[in-house]
Amino acid sequence: MILSTSETILSIKDLHASVDDQEILHGVNLSVKEGEIHAIMGRNGSGKSTLSKVIAGHPSYTVLSGSIQFKGQDILDLAPEERARIGIFLGFQYPVEIPGVSNLEFLRVATNSRRKELLQSELDTFEFEDLVKERMKIVEMDPAFLERSVNEGFSGGEKKRNEILQMALLEPFISILDETDSGLDIDALRIVASGINKLSQPSSATILITHYQRLLDEITPDFVHIMADGKIIKTGNKELAIDLEKSGYDFIDKNKKDKEMVN
Amino acid sequence: MKSSTIYREWLDSLPPTQGCLKKEQSLGRELLLEQGIPSNKDEAWRLCNFNRLNSFLSLPIIIKSEDVKYKLPDKDKNSERIIINPNKNQFLNINLSNGIEKLNDREIEENLGKIVKSTNVKNDLSVCLNQASSSELLALKVKRNFNKSLEIVIPSIKEKSISTRIFLLVEEGAKLDLLQVFLGNNHSAQNHLIEIKLESKVELSHGLISLGEEKESSSICTLAVEQSENSKYSLHSIHHGWDYARFEPRIIQSEGEASTIIKNLQVTKSKEQIATHSLIRFEGPNGKLDQLQKAVASEYSHCIFNGSIEVPQKAQKTEAAQLSRNLLLSKRARIDAKPELEIVADDVRCTHGATVSQLQDEELFYLRSRGIDNEHANSLLLKGYYDEVISHLPKSSKKWNFVKKLMKDIK
Amino acid sequence: MTQTNTVEEIVAQPYKYGFTTEIETEKIPKGLNEDVIRLISAKKNEPDFLLKFRLRAYKQWLKMKEPDWSGLTYSKVDYQDLVYYAAPKQDIKKKSLDEVDPKLLETFEKLGIPLSEQKRLSNVAVDAVFDSVSIATTYKEKLAEHGVIFCSISEAIIERPDLIEKYMGTVVPINDNFFAALNSAVFSDGSFVYIPKGVECPMELSSYFRINSGDTGQFERTLIIAEESASVSYLEGCTAPMFDTNTLHAAVVELVTLDDATIKYSTVQNWYAGNEKGIGGIYNFVTKRGECRGKRSKISWSQVETGSAVTWKYPSCVLQGDNSIGEFYSIALTNNFQKADTGTKMIHIGKNTKSKIVSKGISAGKSKNSYRGLVSIGPNAEGSRNYSQCDSMLIGDKASANTYPYIQSKQPQSNIEHEASTCRISEDQLFYLQSRGIDFEESVSMLISGFCSDVFNELPMEFASEADKLLALKLEGSVG
Questions:
Q1: Does the model's pTM come out above 0.80?
Q2: C454 — contact with chain A (CB < 8 Å)?
Q3: Cα separation of the two ends of chain A
Q4: What is the ipTM of this complex?
Q5: Which of A200, B267, C283, C424 has the fewest beta carbons under 10 Å from its own?
Q6: Contacting subunits of C (3+ beta carbon pairs below 8 A)
Q7: How far apart are CA B379 and CA B392, in angstroms?
Q8: Which residues from A are below 8 Å from C451, CB to CB?
């Protein structure tokens, strides 16, 4: 589905970022076009989650240099909610529980804020209930979850489904799914993966951040990037992920050593 | 007799100020004269049984040295035991093992009274009584190379009142197991003031066994601890058998970045009254507190807990949890619990909880349905209840046989 | 800009009810003595027993000391510099609304409480109190058809002295505390509700209190009686104009429930809180107490406290009847230099009595917000239970949140459970909402509402929207 004429959705150039005065990202470059599925793999602490938080605009992270452009627009000065409204979606690795705030109300306010940006009419309670119930089918979620507080008391799998439901409602141009597969059993993984597949559009793109091959068995990536020490050190196609699964991350260390020797 | 008269007579009975604590004595006496005896209008003394306090003050302060006989269990091989028999001038020529030594005059001058003063308690009767009457000071420095555990035993003297003053300086990086034992006697009174300063990176595990005797024994104890950064202090204490006891642990994390664990158990029977008034203050960021207060009140007795936690603005990222769990075993007994949380720092996690109940019927029923008789089931559950505190006391504490006494006293 | 700064800005909102009504007012001279009390009583044509009640209270008050136990400092009130009776110039009470000064009707309409027949709320009867007098009560006739009495306490004193004599001062004795004694001596007006045996009040009852004069103390007195198997839901709202001086408000509320009766009493307190420098504002020293005298009776207090410079208020339940139930649901929001010391007392006397306490305190600015409560289980309260939950939220690092939950038990066959926590608006929760496109301000407001939801769920419908509006009002504004 990737055409040479496809528009670039996300373009990250030489991105350096820190948290708590510690630099985590040391020059990330990444370009994502419409219709593409990218996978970013790497060990714990390699900077994958940091990258996703920086794209979404988490206030704890500071961009030191470099740029992030979304559809040609520089987004570093935008608040997190503004980024969400223009179509950037982050699926959290650990979605927070928000006691007391109704899930239904939360989903409705979020959906309407996106619709407003797209110049679509805002949905009233009844219209929204119809929409949300329809979208819940994509992730096989029980409508009973609408009555509960946001993520409160949800199991790991239920939280992840709630994330994909939000993606289904917000219809983003780019979805960055941070370890959406972690903590899921086989069935839940399949449901979540099929949800993601159903939602992919020629005009949108997806970045999957993952540790393991198993999610990539369900969703085939066009590109696989390997991150280490806050940089993308290798890019390839889906074969790279399979190699990685076989030989583990050791080759990164080898790579590093080789480099050091060259130096 | 009126409380104020007894109070005045107690003051008058004190010997002239003298010795190494001369300055402290005059300070304490001045304050006592100035503020007078508290009444039940003072919040900190509102629930105090003043008749008991009067009995406490009616016993004469021991002045002349006497030989006191007491039978104590053997000490552990690996422990340094100090028995405090007041007024024997025993600390002048005390022999200490390697790694522990007496503080010199300058160090005493620099430190004594500072910690307790910084706790800043209004109308501080417990402390003033001690300052006014203590005549000897045990002031020790525990060094890093001290490799034994320390035991400090304070027996009471029949029909007498004793006051003891202790200062411990635990040097940077030292690890210490400390066991303190207070033993009551028939018609006796004790008053202790203990100050402990933990330098940075100190780990102090402090066990306190406070056991009264059947007939009118009473005890007032103030324990003031200052923790420097990266220090760990844990206090496990049990109070039982006193006709009247008041325990005031006050812990200041002077730089934050420290951890404090307090697990305190008080068990009362007949007409006893035991009160714990704790104060924990965080004066720097990242402090941690885990506080568990347990009380069991049976027969006609009264257990009191007042637990204050202060988290001022500079104590960001403090994590403090306080839990007060109380068992009320009789219709004539009474439990009062009053947590007090004062929080200004906004980025903190503070929780507290309190429960008052009796032993759980379902648990009892479960045991009984397995063939255990009611009485036995009760004591099994009680033992389980005590265990949360007792199991953390140093091993050597077993010799003091208090569990047996507890099981015998409370059924 | 840091996140807390902007959260603080959101919470700092101008007071919207700060206007004064220009109206000719009849005031008696400042100061308090026996003659003033006789004058107030005479103005109201009170029966002799009530004058005696007032004078007894006054004598008690003279002997009492102003309390300072709660550790809250405030500039002392000069009791001789206050006006104890102020009323808009018109006959004590008009028969019909048409005769009420339109300025007054306008005032209440501006406050969101339309009284005229065309505009008034369809399911809520309103008693509107302006300074010292009740100016109108709606739906009186309709309520009377059901035997329900809803009127100002001054009217009740004239019309039903029997009920007043029987109940007034029996829940809050005249010497209960300094401010209750003062109120008993000089109280001006307030509401009276009587629900006869077996009647479920057909509509919500509501009183709206408005302080207009700057130097007038407001001493309202409310008495609600629910006879056997009767039930009622009562709402109370309060506002005041902005003055640089502190105005004293010392109310007494007494509730009585007999066997199987229920009273639900809800308050939205939004007195003027003073400015951002802590100047001006109402001193709100209120004694509220209910007695569950009957078996299986129930008293439920809910309150949303956002106003006043200083608040001391502990709506309490005395659970005398076996199996009776007491509840307390509270939201207290303080900002700037506000000081709120509020909570409840649940006194368990009868067997199998139950109580539940849910308190949510939100402190911002340099304010001080304290929960102070007592749960006491007496020796005869076998099978009684209490559950309390007190949560505090801090906004910024200069506000303080204090919790003093006092529990006392003398009955082993009973159970007390208390839980408390302190938190702030979590950065992660805020980011999560924002990353779904919800703007900062709305995210904060959602999180605060979520924090309070346990209490909101307990409020009557009409009240819940009013309360939500009030919190939203306090929260709406510009994000810097």
A1: yes
A2: yes
A3: 41
A4: 0.83
A5: A200
A6: A, B
A7: 20
A8: 99-100
